[in-house]
């Protein structure tokens, strides 16, 4: 569907997209040559997978030795010789570590989900999640370099011509925000992908997995039917850790323009949690069995064989884990196989299936656009039981559920490159109400002010003010275009010239349509970031207060741009009747889950 234009740059550039997933990771890339139409290419050969034709992903696993050095990663980490070396050398395995990057905000407050997430393997050897992320990003870069050098004519020369001019696109779950993006960028710097300066950091960009999946679906002509009719389309990226649900429609403004039509969702019900539910069941089932010490291996065998092959809840299922000598009739183990009822195995998948169905229906309910189609992508969507269960449930709601024929697990990396090149989403829906706490002039006739009169104070100008007022800058459920700016005016007073101003940006995540006070629904206000700017060059007239005290006052606007996948900020002020601007710095506050 895309009619991609020629690359207009003056020198060759490489774009690398890393889909660092919970269980598997992939790489896609595009070589941008001046005057040439860019193409999207996947990395299909990795170390220790050279014999597998068309392999598009590797396990997201790293082994560290006791000194904290990486000893094996990716497909190399699941070789038999690696298992032996790890056992002999007491190496430590890191897996599912992506989920440690989540914040309390992205996790949410669901107690059942919290219990499941508590079972995620811990980070190894006192390493931080940024350090582990960095190690794996560095490994992905090595894989990309090796593949490009070996797969292209004059590959070494090609790599040398672009290795210092690479833009990176990192995909992440819909629910992740600036705090997670900030730490991912830190990991990219630590990995040596880019230098630690403003120019280097700007070469790392982000795209949500939902939006990357939309681009993938467009490139693979999956949306042609829905696009022609102008219907809304729900894209479900079912991955290892999260299920990301987004809804779009083609914009009336053009074929290559799409609009987000509902607040995107992110749920911790990915494929790894099928394993978690299986483990919980098997641990209880084999509690008094002589094979209770083999739970790890039994669950591993379930993941590799029973889970992907499961297709019917009314058929007995088997987990082959031992030899013909391994028997425990009291616990349904015979000839090295654990027998389970199909209805029990279906329960392992049920939370994910219900999550997808309910999330899609919620998108349909909240959108004003007619939604007729649902596209499933991501590695988990390749599971036939999941796909057909979702398809059957949503068919009852007149929804057409489909999945691309080829490589659904490449959606995030291929789609991330398409996002960089094509950028078809022109507007997005805000998930929260953005704003800042400020003060207001005290009004003795306002009951809300009177109720808070104990907090009033007199400022340098001699005026009574009430603190704790929430001033919304951008309300929730607002469709925001990429070029639209939102701003709020601020005043700072000081007896000395003001050098740096810092403003804290907050997000209100509750249900009130017009939040006003910090002391109402307090738990749903979360700190988003601090915005700091140098205003020493902004006019600061010296004024006299009511008691003869002299003070400086600076007036400035914080200008916010929410329309992209990453928040951008500037500070603006008036000087001689002309608006001037400068950059502002964003510092995120991360509350780890």
Radius of gyration, in angstroms, nearest whole number = 27 Å
Q: Any idea of the CATH class of the largest domain? A: Alpha Beta
Question: What's the total number of strands?
Answer: 31
Major sheet details: 8 strands, mixed
Mean pLDDT: 90
CATH topology-level fold name of the largest domain: Nucleotidyltransferase, domain 5
Number of domains: 3
Low-confidence stretches: none
Q: What does the overall shape look like?
A: globular
> Could you say which structural class the secondary elements and strand pairing correspond to?
alpha+beta
What is the overall number of helices? Answer: 15
List keywords for this structure.
nucleotide-binding; eight-stranded mixed sheet; Nucleotidyltransferase, domain 5; alpha+beta; 593 residues; six-stranded mixed sheet
What does this structure look like?
With 593 residues, this protein is of the alpha+beta class. It has 3 domains: 13-208, Nucleotidyltransferase, domain 5, CATH 3.30.420; 221-405, ATPase, nucleotide binding domain (Nucleotidyltransferase, domain 5, 2-Layer Sandwich), CATH 3.30.420; 433-588, no CATH class. Helices cover 28% and strands 30% of the residues. Strands 10, 11, 12, 13, 17, 18, 19 and 23 form an 8-stranded mixed sheet that branches. It is globular, with a radius of gyration of 27 Å. Pfam families: HSP70.
